[in-house]
Design goal:
eight-stranded antiparallel sheet; globular; single chain; mainly beta
Length: about 200
């Protein structure tokens, strides 16, 4: 039996269900046990910028779908993404990159091959962590690797990008920053809408 998840992780899917954000959604289909994407989709998992935090997703992906997690996403006054740390889970490799949205460019920070015997068509749990200047990727509770980078030091939004046909069974977010004075520790709301392009 797997170990219980640390209670500091917020259950994002449960919050989305409770708030009714998934009911009759045009691109997300929820059967109560999993969330299936009918089209490519971005989910902003917190409205409070986070500097030290993580995303944890248990998903099943098809051969063609590329999914990613984005931490410390900075946005402009028009709410359009500017830059973020981007962990991409592609067909042949895992990449951590600095994503410049305004120019649609990626600066590679680190790349890893999938472990021997990895089957991308099976369900796996992925984590992407940012702690001070260290970025780490985990697969099924095993560290894949880490890389140091100081390009983005400010807090930003946490976003999960899902390709079409992905089934998400669990989605959690972790905020390890101290709560601002007068605000609860857990970020307040979620957004199941795609961020502006």
């Amino acid at each position: 039996m797997p170990a219980a998840l640390d209670p500091r992780w917020r259950d994002v899917l449960a919050e989305l269900r409770q708030k009714g954000h998934l009911k009759d959604h045009p691109t997300l289909e929820d059967d109560g046990t999993g969330l299936r994407t009918k089209a490519d989709r971005s989910l902003v998992v917190s409205n409070r910028p986070v500097r030290n935090g993580a995303l944890r997703v248990t998903w099943t992906r098809g051969d063609s779908s590329v999914c990613s997690m984005e931490l410390r996403q900075l946005r402009g006054p028009d709410e359009r993404p500017l830059r973020d740390y981007h962990a991409a889970f592609g067909p042949t490799a895992i990449k951590v990159q600095l994503h410049e949205h305004t120019t649609e460019t990626f600066r590679p920070l680190k790349k890893w091959s999938y472990p021997p015997g990895f089957d991308r068509n099976r369900e796996h749990t992925w984590e992407f962590h940012a702690s001070e200047d260290m970025l780490s990727v985990w697969l099924d509770n095993v560290l894949i690797g880490s890389v140091q980078d100081e390009s983005i030091d400010e807090p930003g939004l946490s976003v999960v990008v899902l390709g079409q046909g992905v089934v998400v069974r669990e989605l959690h977010a972790l905020d390890e920053d101290p709560a601002p004075p007068g605000q609860e520790q857990a970020p307040r709301a979620l957004d199941a809408r795609a961020p502006p392009k």
